[in-house]
Design brief:
Strand content: under 5%
Radius of gyration: 64 Å
Oligomer: single chain
Low-confidence stretches: 1-6
Structural class: mainly alpha
Distance between the termini: 50 Å
Amino acid sequence: MIFKQLFQPKWKHPKETTRLGALAQLDKQQDAHIITTLACEDPSANVRTAALKKLNDVGLWWQACQQDGEPSIKRLANQKVAEAILASPDALSDSDKERYIDRFAADKTLEQLALQEKTAAVKIKLLTRLNKAPLLEQVFRSADDALQLQLCELVLKLQLTEKLLKVAKGEAKDKLQKVIDEQQRQEQMPLEVAEQVKLILAKLNALREKTDYQLVNSQFLQLEKQFQQLELEWLDEELRAQTQSKYTQLAAKLSAHSDKLKVAYEQEQAQQLAKQRSVLALANLSALAEEISNAMALRFDGNEQIQTDWLYAKVAQAKDMLQSQDLQAGSELQSQQQELERLFKQVEQLAAYEQDVDALREQLAAYGNLSVPADISELDAALSAEAEQRAQLQQAIKALPKELAALWQQQFNQAKKHWQSQNDPLIQEQKQLQSVARKKARDIRRLINQGRYRVAFGVFNGLQEAYAQLAVHFQNDLSREYESLAKTLDDAKDWHQYAGEAQQEQLLEAAKELAQGDCDDANERLAQVKRLRKSWQLLGPEVAQQAKEAFERAIEAAFAPCREYFAEQQALKEQAMAEREQLIAQMQSLSERAAELETRELEHQFNALLKQWRAAKHIESKLYHKLSKAFCNAQGDMAERVAKFYQDNAHAKEALLQQAEALDTSDVFAATNKLKELQQQWQQIGFAGNAKERKLWQAFRRVNDGIFSQRDAAKAQQQQAHAEQKAEQVSALEALEQQLAQAQSNADLQHLLNDVQQLQLVRELQGQRQQLAARIEAALNAKEQALQTRHFKELRTALAEQQAVPADWLSGTRVDLTPEQLVLRLEITNNLASPESLSTQRMQEQVSMLDNKHHGVEHTSEELLLAWLAGVGVNEQGICQGAQAEIERLVVVLDKMVSV
């Protein structure tokens, strides 16, 4: 047995430390099968771990993950497999990868795989297993059309349909939209069907109140058809049963109501048919009566073809028709009977009527032969003769039946019109004179009422002349008014002469009194002077010269105080005129310079002159109109140019208004920014004229107010959502703070750090996240530092006390450096002195280290220690076999590393 152990390889040695030492000496390339055997079959978990780490083969890690019974190795292998798969999707075969995902992968790994995986089936499987909405949303947003379509079922399952519809593409968008539409339909259809049922039942119930059979019957059939077409399956079973029951009851009641209406309707139809027959019979009877009436008219007109026997036959026919059963009693039948009875009577008296017609024909011939007057002297006799003949004819026509009377009245009207046309010139002349006389009479009556008798006397002379030219026939219409005016003026003539002298004295005294009084109001004094002058003028020319002169002196004295006032007014008037004339000159000057000015500057100066014109002092109307016309003429085409400027500005503002009204408010903040740009453009546009500026601004402001209100509401909603989100994130941070306090291992801290770094926070909380991450990293660093310190202490103890070197220090790889060079580099790295005898070698190593550093090669102290141990090796007991001097120097290095 001892002999066998002497020749047994160290990697098969029973001692764990020996095998670890041997493992450290094995080459990865040449001894790969031995290291694989150790990784899979060695009984020590430490050896298997060291072997797995040395080969670092994903296949071995995957085998250990499945088969190794040590939990720590399983965890490490799981982590290594996850890292390999995440680094390279082809690290494992598809079947092994699927098995790993199904049985071994952690959720965090699965989430990263779901984001990185290119195969749609695997990605969907991962998402389905994780069943996390945020992860699915992240994948769906970045997926192509085909993958989105395959993810739709999972989107529906996690109820993300509405949220992801906006980012869906192609068929996936159509599918999600159909699902949403169907969901909305599932929600809306029961309500719609219930509303339709309610409406139909209400209409059926309302039909029971109607009495029109045709309306009830037609609408009943329509509603019955509509009810049958309803999709009652959308209603729940109880409501569907209630609906069917209500409909059955209403339909039965409405059928009974319709049957009653049908009976009444058929009776009404029968009555209407009988009435139609009666109307037809009455119409035939009326036509026959008209035929008899027309025949009699022709007979009286001299048509001998109308025989008396034929008229009697028609009367008999009418009497037979009156006995028809179709005729219904009523006012129309009674009226027709009375008309026929009148016609029957006229037929019986036909012979007597014919004698009256012959006499009337002779009278009408005599009327047509009336003489026509040659002048006004014959007009009265002609008018009297015509009036006598006219009265006789009208009396004779009135005695005839109405049919004959209408015929002969027409002939008489024609004859009368002919006679009037022959006498029209004389009659029109008389009517014009009569109209003139009437107007003068009205004027005289008005003048008398005003007390203006002197004027009335003159107008009455004209009335006398016109009245004298009228024929007696036309004077009769004016005679009463003419005689009344003549008598009134005769009575007033004597009184007026008497009253004039007394009025002279009153007006003269009033003028003197006015001259002696104080003048407080010049305009009122002027009005009083004018009234006195007007009253004096009404006295007429008979006033004595002495009285006239006295009145003039008094009036002049009364007006004297007003002269200074009106002189001042005249000066003000001239000043106001001068001011406006100056504005006219300025407007003329501006018109001459208009072509040289920009439109905006022209508009500014033009409006300034208009404003000054409106603010200028008032002048009398007549003069103002004259100056205003000159001011308008001075404007030339400037007003049109300014108006065109206003019009262009109005069009520009209308365009901005249309843009504002057309803004898409689905993104109210973008619409607000666009609206601010429109506001700046609005301010740069000039005035749009009084007619449109205010209206356009009010319309534009309404749009602004509406969008800004929406913006404020959206901002408030965002702020509320932001506050809620912030509160949730604060809670998440607090939970992470608690986890930090409870974290024990590096793995817990690393997992916590990943959670903190992946946490999406609002801007205000990002500082807290950074602080928390810094604390976690500090804790990790502290633990790693403590672990590293312990790691170095274990090695220092093993070297200083010649104990077995810990296994984790035996996994280093050899480098192309001697142990002495490695020790020197450790001393240089940790700023420790080397023996004086090695100063030259130390200098060479420093130069080499600098050169390696320039080439990107630099080793840590731990790597140098691992390489030194790999170079010197350990014995069977795991004790380092390096030179004692080198060991002592390394102990000093380790003391320095531990103390730092």
